[in-house]
Design goal:
This protein is of the alpha/beta class. Helix content is 39%, strand content 21%. It has 12 helices and 14 strands. Helix 1 packs antiparallel against helix 2, helix 3 packs across helix 9 and helix 7 packs across helix 9.
């Protein structure tokens, strides 16, 4: 077993490890606060073998920097902090387009048209919500390559990627909506591609540049980023699927997994929505209806708002305006929750009258202001 830090350590909470792929060792260090890591490796010397050294530096905030300046005024400090806040960005990808019409219904309805109509309605709802902004991946009837769609979302610094489609099958009786996230195999293959691609490795993944990292640390950072991204994707997909159940038939009762290219961004939570089977005459009729399109858009909208009310990034206006509560999910730790919201574990314990760091799945925590 790994030696654990003392319970009153100001930075380290615990160290855990696990074997992956029967040959790789993954080591995770839980901290009490966010840090800026830098790493380097040392070659063997004398009685010491290969070593990986990770230096942890504090992340200076604008508030701390300004407060340290002599004569800094509180009003100036507040203004600077507010300027750092941003909107939550949702990238909306209407499937197909241009020379690619997608699936066709019995009456000739084209998938590319109905999903674009739903996407526009979803974008309108998002743009009306304070603290949120929609980015349409395609803004008209033209085709965009799949990988380019991912690039557009990354360029917009999207917090979520939503791809909207309408399914089809040779059996016209098949019906219902589905929501997909990327399969583990699909995610792993894309991660390997990113790490091998020099241009991609220079990008930020989960807020950390990979270009100046040793191969092993870059792999660990990519893995951690993917783990968080896939968990967020599943969470959002589940909320949207639950909303779909209220307005129509579900093709599958659970969130599905597949290797869709547009879902493979390693650091952007991504979901693909199959709104209905356009090959089913009844569902084709509904997809052509503006009223039903609005219902579908609203179901997606309510699902993602529900998610961000719980997990809004701490540097967003949305996080500032919502009442912060956190429902404990399986595998979460109090230290991890504290880091996510930019507060200390002590502050969370005090706000919730916790005697220890022990938490339970389903428990609701009040999150104090950072």
């Amino acid at each position: 077993p790994l030696t654990q830090p003392p319970k009153n350590h100001p930075l380290f909470v615990r160290v855990r490890s696990a074997v992956r792929n029967k040959q790789d060792l993954r080591v995770v260090v839980d901290l009490t606060t966010a840090v800026r890591p830098k790493s380097f490796s040392l070659n063997p010397s004398k009685n010491k073998s290969h070593r990986l050294v990770v230096d942890l530096f504090p992340k200076p905030s604008a508030l701390t920097t300004l407060s340290a300046k002599k004569g800094a005024q509180p009003l100036t400090t507040t203004k600077t902090v507010k300027q750092q806040l941003r909107e939550i960005v949702i990238a909306i990808d209407a499937g197909h387009g241009g020379e690619d019409p997608g699936a066709r219904g019995p009456r000739g309805t084209q998938e590319k048209k109905v999903v674009f109509d739903i996407a526009k309605k979803l974008a309108a709802l998002i743009n009306k919500k304070s603290g949120m902004k929609a980015v349409m991946v395609r803004k008209g009837d033209y085709y965009i390559k799949l990988r380019k769609r991912m690039e557009i979302a990354r360029a917009a610094k999207a917090d979520l990627f939503v791809s909207i489609h309408a399914d089809a099958f040779k059996n016209a009786k098949v019906k219902g909506a589905s929501v997909f996230t990327v399969s583990n195999r699909g995610a792993s293959s894309e991660a390997a591609r990113w790490l091998a691609d020099h241009e991609n490795s220079a990008d930020l993944v989960g807020g950390v540049k990979l270009a100046d990292k040793e191969d092993m640390l870059a792999t660990v950072l990519m893995d951690l980023s993917q783990t968080a991204t896939k968990e967020a994707s599943r969470n959002i997909a589940g909320k949207i699927l639950k909303n779909f159940k209220r307005i129509g038939h579900l093709h599958k009762q659970n969130v599905q997994k597949a290797g869709f290219m547009v879902l493979k961004s390693p650091d952007i939570p991504s979901i693909l929505v199959e709104t209905a089977f356009i090959s089913n005459p009844d569902e084709e009729r509904k997809l052509r209806s503006r009223k039903h399109q609005t219902k579908m858009a609203n179901a997606i909208y309510q699902g993602l708002v529900s998610y961000f009310e719980q997990y809004a990034p701490s540097n967003t206006y949305f996080a500032l305006n919502v009442k912060k509560q956190h429902v404990i999910s399986r595998g979460e730790t109090l230290s991890g929750i504290a880091v996510h919201y930019g507060v200390t574990m002590k502050a969370i314990k005090t706000a919730n009258a916790l005697a220890s760091t022990a938490i339970q799945v389903g428990q609701v925590l009040r999150i104090p202001k950072g």
